[in-house]
Amino acid sequence: MLTKNDTIKEYAKELKLSNLCRKAEDFIEDGEKKDLSYQDFLLNILNEEIVAKEEKRRQGRLKNSGLPIIKTIEEFDFEFQKSITKKQINRLLEMDWIDKIYNLVFLGPPGVGKTHISIALGYKAIDMGYKVSFISMDNLMYALKTQDIYRKSKIRIGKIHSSDLVIIDEIGYLPINREEANMFFQLISSLHEQASVIITSNKGFGDWNELLGDPALTTAILDRLTFKCELFNMTGQSYRLTHRKSFLED
């Protein structure tokens, strides 16, 4: 025979109140200990259910984002990298540029913090309820070329198209052919004024003609990316090389 607690859990499971299902005894014990009114008791249950559901949604957004690692702005060394200011980044953390569908472009040599900032902004956006997709240029090209063959690639491209923010990392590190450049143009065109895009690249815009192999195509891509855009030219030495660690020195 089911106890009352068992019945509460069964009802909670049926109603998909997963937090109540897990913590029914805790709620009851806390309510008795604090001598809560019926209203306060119910409010505690419902409030924690809402919090738990939002955390589950956040974890889902994080899992679907493809972020390779968690980076935060608090971890960024603004004393080392002085070509971008904390004030500028704090302004970006307000995320209204996503609502206005602005793009961000971070240009500069390897190791100056382009990817760190991009990931940190993506992570913050996820916390604030936005759908985010992170992908390197190399993996993007592979997904675009194989989306009609592999289900995994098709799902990845679908997630990109349904995102509020798309982060494309490391443009310019590997050469791309004419077919890939056309696919990239089609993607940027489809995202234009539909989602915000963050681009990181080790090449200035003047070098994109060589990268994409077609001046007209390059102009069309940059026209869409920079129509509503904040551009950050990051300079300086590589943080990784400067702070290089060696196990032989331990």
From TrEMBL:
<dbReference type="InterPro" id="IPR027417">
    <property type="entry name" value="P-loop_NTPase"/>
</dbReference>
<dbReference type="GO" id="GO:0005524">
    <property type="term" value="F:ATP binding"/>
</dbReference>
<keyword id="KW-0067">ATP-binding</keyword>
<dbReference type="InterPro" id="IPR002611">
    <property type="entry name" value="IstB_ATP-bd"/>
</dbReference>
<dbReference type="Pfam" id="PF01695">
    <property type="entry name" value="IstB_IS21"/>
</dbReference>
<protein>
    <submittedName>
        <fullName>IS21-like element helper ATPase IstB</fullName>
    </submittedName>
</protein>
<comment type="similarity">
    <text>Belongs to the IS21/IS1162 putative ATP-binding protein family.</text>
</comment>
<dbReference type="InterPro" id="IPR003593">
    <property type="entry name" value="AAA+_ATPase"/>
</dbReference>
<feature type="domain" description="AAA+ ATPase">
    <location>
        <begin position="100"/>
        <end position="235"/>
    </location>
</feature>
<dbReference type="InterPro" id="IPR028350">
    <property type="entry name" value="DNAC/IstB-like"/>
</dbReference>
<keyword id="KW-0547">Nucleotide-binding</keyword>
<dbReference type="InterPro" id="IPR047661">
    <property type="entry name" value="IstB"/>
</dbReference>
<dbReference type="GO" id="GO:0006260">
    <property type="term" value="P:DNA replication"/>
</dbReference>
